[in-house]
Amino acid sequence: MNTATMIKQSMDVGKAAVQYVNPGQTPVYVFDQPLFTLAKLLQWNFPDQYGEKNLVVMFGGLHIEMCAYKVVGEWLDNSGWVQALENAEIASEGTADSFIKAGNMTKSRHAHQVTAAALHILQKKAYEEAINQEETTLEFDEWVSKMCQEQPQFLFWNRTLELEMSILQFLKSIREAKFDDYVHS
């Protein structure tokens, strides 16, 4: 099923099935990257029959995850993240560098999970130190906001944590089949 003709046929059959079961519902098709490209070409070349008003074509979960890791990789490139993973003995330099491009999904996912956990732990420790040294009386979220305004490096790593958590929430929504969480993430 790797030709435009086969994609067209599968979309025709899928559209007929959806209309039979749920008249008026817009069909949603999920493809991996090469098939997604063919489906989008069909949408653009035949807008009356396959246009975005008639059906939705989207990437599958794995490809969305890969793209998300590539975005975070671009964000983290030249930030010292690769060296931090190497120094923590999580990965060799070459392997850690491959996480920037999300070369191996399982290893990349693990590295990003470790990164999110480490950043969260470091934030909590810094907050506890600030409380213990009586540097702040703010609640955690207020303190994070204040630190983001005062410290550019804190802001960078806080945004990194937010990106990592968005990806993890996306993965959780897929694994638990929670559509509202999927849309939110």
List keywords for this structure.
185 residues, mainly alpha, 10 helices, 72% helix
Mind explaining what this structure looks like?
The chain is mainly α. The protein is 72% helix and 4% strand. It contains ten helices and two strands; from the N terminus they run H-E-H-H-E-H-H-H-H-H-H-H. It has a two-stranded parallel sheet. It is elongated and about 65 Å long. The two termini are 30 Å apart. The mean pLDDT is 91.
Write the layout of secondary structure elements.
Elements: H1 4-21, E1 28-31, H2 33-45, H3 47-50, E2 56-59, H4 61-76, H5 81-87, H6 93-98, H7 105-132, H8 140-150, H9 152-175, H10 179-184
Helix pairs in contact: 4-9, 7-9, 8-9
Note the main sheet.
2 strands, parallel
Distance between the termini: 30 Å
List unreliable stretches of 5+ residues.
none
Element order, helices and strands? HEHHEHHHHHHH
- Strand adjacency order, main sheet: 1-2
**Based on helices, strands and strand pairing, what is the structural class?**
mainly alpha
Number of strands: 2
Average predicted local confidence, pLDDT: 91
> How many H/I helical runs?
10
The geometry reads as elongated
Report the portion of residues in β strands.
Answer: under 5%
What percentage of residues falls in helices of 4 or more residues? Answer: over 70%
CA gyration radius, whole angstroms = 22 Å
